Amino acid sequence: MMKIAVVTDSTAYLPKDVREALSIYMIPLSVTFGNETYREEIDISAEQFFEEVKQHKHLPTTSQPSIGAFVELFESLAQEYDAVISIHLSSGISGTYQGAVTAGSMVSGIQVYPYDSEISCMAQGFYAIEAAKMAKEGKRPEEILARLDEMKTSLRAYFMVDDLTHLQRGGRLSGAQAFIGSLLQVKPLLHFENKVIVPFEKIRTRKKAIKRIEELFAEDAKTGVPLKAAIIHANRPEEAEQWKQELSSMYPHVDMMISYFGPVIGTHLGEGALGLTWYKL
User: Fold this and answer.
1) Tell me, what DSSP letter sits at residue 10?
2) pLDDT tens sequence across 224-250
3) Mean pLDDT, to the nearest integer, of 2-7?
4) Which of 144, 104, 122, 113 is nearest to 10 (CA)?
5) Strand locations in 83-125, DSSP E?
6) Burial status of residue 33 (CB atoms within 10 A of its CB: 0-12, 13-18, 19 or more)
7) For the whole prediction, is pTM greater than 0.85?
8) How many CA atoms lie within 13 A of 102 on its CB side?
9) What pLDDT is stored for residue 164 in this prediction?
């Protein structure tokens, strides 16, 4: 039987106990405040990060793992595994996936299958969890990748930010859209399309944005098909918990969890961002 390792990067924001239970390996991205660089999920937590942001005048910068770090990880996995499926945040917003591709072509003794989730955060985490479960069941890499592609067809994610300037400054949303947004005080609903973050709809208030996400979710949830979903928040745990209780009472058949926007993605979305992601089981 082929031994397959599953790797994802830190922007999946998978809790440590989940990674350990499923033997998912994590390669970190980093945030830099001034001269201090922190590997997210290792040197700095989401809570610490949002505190740190308040202490600094300038937003931190973010950086992807070096190719050397990937090579080192893949070479160490080669001691024990035959193949690795390496699942990363969208290649449209980060070079991390490309780093895995390059490193994969440089190592020997292990077959590397990089996978572009075309998204990030817990939506990316869902792919890693699914891949890890299948790897434990002894599925072949091709079967796992086919299932990830199948998940991609039903996976949805919508999120809103309190302040568009982060996305604009980080170059993750075009300037004109950010300018119009701040002018009208809109809370645009955002999503990933063709691997990048784009506005889905312009909405006036936070309350209406949440309501609209609920409507989009209901389109899939009310059919009664089994779904797995995650509420994702940027330093708003109480709000996330309350939303989870409301949605869970409306849709008891949905497996609902809470996740978070950590440092790297939080740099681009800012505190107060809120999202919902789901896919068909």
Assistant:
1) G
2) 999 999 999 999 999 999 999 999 999
3) 97
4) 122
5) 83-88, 111-116
6) middle
7) yes
8) 11
9) 74
Residue in the block written with tokens 């996305």: 167
Q: Which domains does the chain have, with CATH numbers?
A: 4-29+64-153 (3.40.50.10170), 156-280 (3.30.1180.10)
Q: Are 74 and 84 in contact (CB under 8 A)?
A: yes
The pLDDT of 148-159, averaged and rounded, is 98
Residue 192: strand, helix, or coil: strand
Question: What is d(CA 254, CA 274) in angstroms, rounded to the nearest whole number?
Answer: 19
Contacts of 29 (CB under 8 A, 6+ apart): 9, 10, 11, 39, 40, 62, 63, 64, 65, 94, 96, 264
In this model, does residue 176 exceed pLDDT 70?
no
Structure-block tokens of residue 240: 């996330």
Amino acid at position 143, single letter: E
Type of residue numbered 135? A
Side chain identity at residue 202, one-letter code: K
Percentages helix, strand, coil for the chain (3-state, rounded to 5) are 45, 25, 30
* Residue 178 pLDDT level (bands cut at 50, 70, 90): low
Look up residue 236 and give its two tokens.
């708003």
DSSP notation for 121-153: HHHHHHHHHHHHHHHHTT--HHHHHHHHHHHHH
* Residue 183: pLDDT band with limits 50, 70, 90: low
